[in-house]
Amino acid sequence: MKAPRFWWQSAPTFLSRALSPVAWTYQKLSILDRSSQKTIDPGVPVICIGNLVLGGAGKTPVTAFLASHLKKSHILSRGYGRKSTQTKRVDSRHHVSQDVGDEPLLLSQFAPVWVGKNRPELAKLACKAEARILLLDDGFQNKTLKKTLNLLVVDGIRGFGNQKTFPAGPLREPLLPGLKRADALILMGEDHHALQEKFKNKVPFFRAHFEPVKKDLEQLKEKPTFAFAGIAAPEKFFSMLKNLGIDLIETASFGDHHPYSTQELQELHRQAHSKNAVLITTEKDWWRLSPEWRTKVRPIRGQAVFQEPEKFIDFVKQKCCIK
Fold first, then answer.
1. What pairing do the DSSP bridges indicate for beta strands 46-50 and 73-77?
2. Which residues is 40 bridged to in the sheet?
3. How far apart are CA 323 and CA 46, in angstroms?
4. CA–CA separation, 188 vs 170, rounded Å?
5. Structural domains in the chain?
């Protein structure tokens, strides 16, 4: 589904106010659920990469960055969007997104990934496979694992929206209690809401942005392109391409984690072909395609680039007592 526009308006709208009683009930139920969860210590550092808003904030590239810099780290994920309920280790050679989810497939290129609903069980399996650090991809609101470090990722363009909880707004929980549990904030992209000024003295603050792989962009030089995306904010992907000088002649937006049907892909391919354009998408969307369709669509890969990468990694290692 696509997030409603009123979530991202600075002032609460009539609809937001009307949904406030439902949001209050949702929060009470969430608190009850968390209070019933038993916390397990896996015996190794657990680094949680989470956010306070529903939808994308940049957790996946930050998780990939950490996996690339921390030896013997394993990633734990729910595998959102998959049809299988089995607990398993991700193998991109044999699994598709219906088996394990799109983000786990992407992240498996950087470190071993385990998917399943029971995080303590995933931690146990990862530790048996000689994991020395566990990266919890999303799970800021889950307390089943004892966390050594809570990293909160924030989209600098969207910020915290109208600062209301779901469904009155995009927040998974009230803003201030969530911020108090964070050990550090990671601002992804441009700071459109003066978040650094507001929070830099309250919690360690790091800046990063998403940067596409240059080779992927160079292959598109002077070529008309047709881009499609099923992520939390497709317009960010399209704007990035335009700002980087890509000749973007057509776009198509879908809901976050959208499962593309063969008919939809055939229509996208037909439209691109009729315009003599290259069909491109995000790396996360690309992993949701079948192996056959991956040969017909080009992914735009990317990575999180930190302003002070060494300072950030030193902070993580010091907090987790990692050498």
1. unpaired
2. 145
3. 15
4. 17
5. 34-209+306-320 (3.40.50.300), 214-300 (3.40.50)
Burial track 140-157 (b if 16+ CB lie within 10 A, e otherwise)? bbbbbbebbbbbbbbbbb
Q: Which tens digits make up the pLDDT trace of 272-323?
A: 999 999 999 999 999 999 999 999 999 999 999 999 999 999 999 999 999 8
CB 116 within 8 A of CB 82: no
CA distance 158 to 240: 15
- 172: Cα separation from own chain's centroid: 14
CA distance 181 to 201: 15
Q: What is the pLDDT of residues 43-85, one digit of tens each?
A: 999 999 999 999 778 999 999 999 999 999 999 999 988 988 8
Type of residue at 246: I
Angle between helices 309-320 and 59-69 (to 10 degrees): 70
Q: What is the value of pTM for the model shown?
A: 0.93
Amino acid at 204: P
The tokens of 25 are what?
Answer: 């009930």
CA distance to 102, 105, 158, 243, per residue, from 96 (Å): 8, 8, 31, 32
